Automatic annotation (TrEMBL):
Record-linked Gene3D superfamilies: bacterial protein sp0830 like, SP0830-like domains
Protein name as catalogued: DUF1697 domain-containing protein
Species per Swiss-Prot/TrEMBL record: Flavobacterium beibuense F44-8
Sequence intervals crossing the membrane: none
A Pfam family of this chain: DUF1697
Recorded superkingdom: Bacteria
Amino acid sequence: MALYLALFRGINVSGKNIIKMESLRKQMDLAGYGNVQTYIQSGNVVFKAKETSKAKLSAAIESLIKKEYGYDITVFVLDMADMNKVAANNPYATRDELEEGSKKLYVTFLSEIPQKENTQKLYDASIGDDSIEFNDDILYFKLATKASDSKLSNNLIESKLKLRATTRNWNTTIKLLTMLEKSEK
């Protein structure tokens, strides 16, 4: 079985699309996924599967969520190579640089590589002193102050880029990579 990470977009946010991680682990286990582990409540799942197509896995998990919980959500499926690339290409930090205190570094996982004209729309958006950088289907950003003051949001990113997105802070991203590494052993 191959090892994967699933990132769920828009669950357990502001009291909407509530899914308890214990229930999610159980449902994924019943659906045939192996070694299912979750990290925090925002929908981060490390698991093993016989399927090798990340697109098919995303569709299957989205269907499972719709059937079991009634939610239409987007699920991003990544593997170890994807996550190593994310960690290696951050223009604002190295893998070993974790943040303390106020979280200012974020990684946004995009459903596909955005079109150039749409990336320009995001660069041109009114985002204050926040910094953004693209690397294929990943958007890195560094906030000038705190997240609650930032104009950058999944809604803004999705509306400008015309695709789906889910965001994790840098510490969570590195924790998920570490979970993948431990599960691979």
